[in-house]
Design a protein that fits this description.
The complex is a heterodimer of chains A (83) and B (135). Chain A is mostly helical and 83 residues long. Chain A contains two helices and no strands. The relative contact order of chain A is 0.14. The longest helix of chain B has 7 residues.
Amino acid sequence: MTEQKILFRQIQLYKFAVHETILYLDGHPCDKKALEFYKKYNCKLSEMKKAYEDKYGPLTSFGNLQGTWKWVECPWPWEIDSL
Amino acid sequence: MKELSELDNVNSCGKKNCRAYENDSVESQKPSCKNQRSDKCDKNVNDHSAESFCDSYKTNCKCKGHSTVTPLSGVPLAMVYSPYQSFDELYEMEEGFKRGTIFKLLDFPFYMESCRGLRNTSCDCGCDRYVGGKR
């Protein structure tokens, strides 16, 4: 697996876990364990996203614009597996 | 009225987080605890319908396989109750992503014959209830 794919995969895993926690917190807004988990892993997720985007371009079309419209140069969804 | 959090996963074995099935129809599990009734209770000891139980019986009966009293006895009718989830027993990242949930206790894969989604084959609270098939 390429470094890009490894990082991309990590982002997928962490984003899923954070989103699950968000849904949990919607129903348990004061749960301390969940809040700590969210804080820790959302922070890590942001770092990983930034590291990925700095090196490989935007993850979403709302990503940073650096010169040209790099969004069309990034792997399309069906190209992810062959990264 | 009990707080909802006190009602979660409490079965007749009295233990929290016991995930054993309640088998309401097994004759051999009918309670025979007439000795545990309150002295003031004038209910028919052989009548096992919920209405016949005095409150003392309901709260103090230590019979296994109590067929008519459930953790929801005494709560208002026509309301929907859901056991309170806690932020525990999380899968590792990779496993959670594959299972479709990070919560082990919410991992209920469906099969065609019946719901065999419960993870344990025997209750891990120490009671001797058979819980369900393997995942």
